[in-house]
Amino acid sequence: MYQHIVKPGETLFSISEDYRTPYVTIVKANNIQNPNLIFVGQPIIIPGIPDPNQIPFMIEVSIGSRTLTLYENGQIRKVYPIAVGRMLFDTPVGDFIIVNRQPNPGGPFGTLWLSLSKKSYGIHGTNDPASIGQAVSRGCIRMYNQDVEELGSIVPNGTRVRINA
């Protein structure tokens, strides 16, 4: 079971959106009497998300070098080239997890979408392979379709994703 730690400015509603988990489900799972009273640093159980500590994989994204590195048991398994957010649409920096996935999302998202625990952001394929290596997205992490499919076949939901500048 995954525990989210409340950050400044977050509400239960924003947390539910980030994790694509119904608000009521989070309130019930945490036995919260007053949903308007949560505090920074409070642990919130997110039902349905596996415990990342039980997953041998971790993803590290370097915005500066435009690479995504897949680790298995602390060792580099593979490094992939990526595209990142363009000016005014920065790729968010921080620690996230993969919360769900959608095959064949269509359009600019290529053949697979891996949702991050930040609403509207993900790791996905592309219909524009020439964009890989560039800062051109609306903040998401773009990969070649064959690369995101390979990554998606390896990492489960709950996998940690650390994005560094």
TrEMBL record:
Its BP terms in the Gene Ontology are: cell wall organization; peptidoglycan-protein cross-linking; regulation of cell shape
* Pfam families the record matches: LysM, YkuD
Active site (UniProt): 124 (proton donor/acceptor), 140 (nucleophile)
> Which SUPFAM superfamilies is this protein grouped with?
L,D-transpeptidase catalytic domain-like, LysM domain
Q: Name one GO molecular function term.
A: peptidoglycan L,D-transpeptidase activity
Q: Where is the L,D-TPase catalytic domain?
A: 57-164
| Residue stretches making up the LysM domain | 2-46
User: Which key words are in the record?
Assistant: Cell shape, Cell wall biogenesis/degradation, Glycosyltransferase, Hydrolase, Peptidoglycan synthesis, Transferase
GO cellular component terms, semicolon-separated: extracellular region
Named in its record, the pathway it takes part in is: Cell wall biogenesis; peptidoglycan biosynthesis
Cited PANTHER family = L,D-TRANSPEPTIDASE, L,D-TRANSPEPTIDASE ERFK_SRFK-RELATED
Protein family: Belongs to the YkuD family.
Indicate what this protein is called per its UniProt record. Answer: L,D-transpeptidase family protein
Per the UniProt entry, what species is this protein from, by scientific name?
Answer: Alkalihalophilus sp. As8PL
